[in-house]
Amino acid sequence: MMGVLALLQDYTIQNVVAGAALLGLISGVLGSFAVLRQQSLLGDTMSHAALPGVCLGFIIAGTRHMGSILLGALATGALAALVMLLLTRMSRLKTDAGLGIALSVFFALGVVLLTYIQGMNNAAQGGLDAFLFGQAAATLRSDVWIMAGITVVALALVVALWKEFKLVTFDPEFAASLGMPVVWLEVGLTVMIALAVVVGLQMVGVVLMAAMVIAPAVAARQWSHRLEDMVWLAAAIGVAGGVFGALLSALSRGLATGPLIILSVSGVVLVSITLAPGRGLVWEALRLWRGRRRQRDQQVLTTLYRLAAHHDDPVYRSEQGMLDTYHGLGTRAALRKLERRGLVEWGQAPPGEPGPERRWVLTPAGIAEAERILASLNGEGA
What we know:
- This protein is mainly alpha-helical.
- The protein has 2 domains: about 1-255, ABC transporter involved in vitamin B12 uptake, BtuC (Orthogonal Bundle), CATH 1.10.3470; about 285-380, Orthogonal Bundle (Arc Repressor Mutant, subunit A), CATH 1.10.10.10.
- The protein is about 75% helix and about 5% strand.
- It is built from 15 helices and 2 strands.
- The protein has a two-stranded antiparallel ribbon.
- Helix 2 runs antiparallel to helix 10 (about 225-250), helix 4 packs across helix 9 (about 180-225) and helix 6 packs across helix 9.
- It is elongated, with a radius of gyration of 31 Å.
- The N and C termini lie far apart (about 65 Å).
- The model has no long low-confidence stretch (mean pLDDT about 85).
C-alpha cells in the first residue's frame, strides 16, 4: 500500500493514472450504447479511422501538438462512422460490411500518411507511430486536461439527451413516430463514441482502443437489467480497470501500460461472463444440468404412469430392474427424488406374485402430475 502511495507522488504516474481513469469513464458510458445498439465493431472502425486524423493533425500543426492531433483524430473517426451510416442507409449493405469498408479505407489512408510523414525529415515526427499501440508514459498534464475536457463534454451530452438516446437505442422506430430526429441522434451517439476513441489514443493506441470501448460495457451487461445500472457499472469497471492497469504497469517496470489496461478490463469481462448470476456460463451450465435432471425425473414418472395404464391398474407396482432396463441406466436417484416429492412410493408387491417383494407405485399426486406432463407434451406436439 505504501509503495502504491509513493508511486502516486510521481508526476508521470499521476498523469497516466488520471488519463486511464478518464478513458475508463468515457469508454464505459459511451460503449454501453454501442453494445446495446449491436455496433460493437463501431469502436474498432473509428479507432483505426483515427490514424489518418492523427497524421493530418501533425502535418497541419507541424509538431506533435496534442490538441491538433486529437482534433484530427476526432474528425476522421467521426467521418468514417458517418460514411458507414451513409453506406448502410443508402445501399443494401449490412452494418458489418459498411464498418469493414470504412475501417479498411481509412486505416489504409492512415498508413500511407504515416509513411509520408516519415519521409518529411521532420524531427518532431519521432514517436508518432506510438499512436498505433499507445504511449501512456508520454502523457503530459496538458494532455490530461484535454482528455478531461472531452470527457466532460461527452458526459454532459449524455445527461442532457439521456431520454432521447435511451429511446433511440432500444426502439428507433417508436422514437421516429414521436417525431424525434432519429438520424441526428444516431449521428450524435456515433460522434460521441468517436470522442471516447480520441481520449484513448494516447493511452492504448489505435489497435487496442476498440477493446476499451466494448469491454466495460460487455462486463456490465452481464450484471445489470436496466440501462441506468449498466452505464454506471460500465463506467466503474472502466475506471477500475484503467487505474489498475496503469498502476500495475508502474509497479512492473518495462511492461506497456495500454495492453495492461486492456488485460485488466478483459479480466473483468472473463469473470463476468463466467460467474454473473443468471447469465454466466456457470449458471447456464447449472441450469442445463437441473433441466436434464428434471427431464429425467419426468420421464421416469411418465413411464410409471404408462405402465399402470397398460395394465389398466392405477396402482400398478413396477419393479426397479424393469425401470432400469427400460431407461437403459439406473433410475433409483430419480425415483428417490420423486418419492421425496410425494409422487411415488415404495410399496409391497401383491401376495404370491413372483419377483421382488418391494416395488414402485404412483401416488394420487403422482398420477395427476404425470397426466399434466403428458398433456403438456401433447399440446406442444399439436
